[in-house]
Structures are given as structure tokens and as C-alpha cells.
Amino acid sequence: MKKYSVLLTRDYVIEINAENEAEAKECAEFFVSGGLDASTEKDREKYNFEIERIKPIINDAFEVEEIIDGK
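RE: above sequence
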């Protein structure tokens, strides 16, 4: 098998309940990882938020380059 480097971009729309816009943005940035809710119940209680939905909208690979060992 050959080895490749792939430039991949993924974007999501996050539906989140939070105290205000700034908190919604910060919690979405920090607690969404790989398209999943990475928060714990303790996180949600401490920061007073809840992620309701994570909807993927873009999943594109832009560049593919073969990796040659030693180069």
C-alpha cells in the first residue's frame, strides 16, 4: 500500500443552547471535536450550555500527495 497526505476540510452547523452569542461560539469551538459533542455532563453544568445538533455541511478533500519515505 502507498501512503498519502490528504488535505481535508469539514464544516458543521452547530445548534447550541447557551447564555449568549459569545458563550455559544466559545462552547461550540471548544466542545465539538471531529463532528461529535466532546462535552461531559460536568462541562454542560459548569458552563451552562447544551449542544442539540451537529450538522455536517462540507466534507471535501482538496489535495492528495503521495508520501515517499525518506523525502
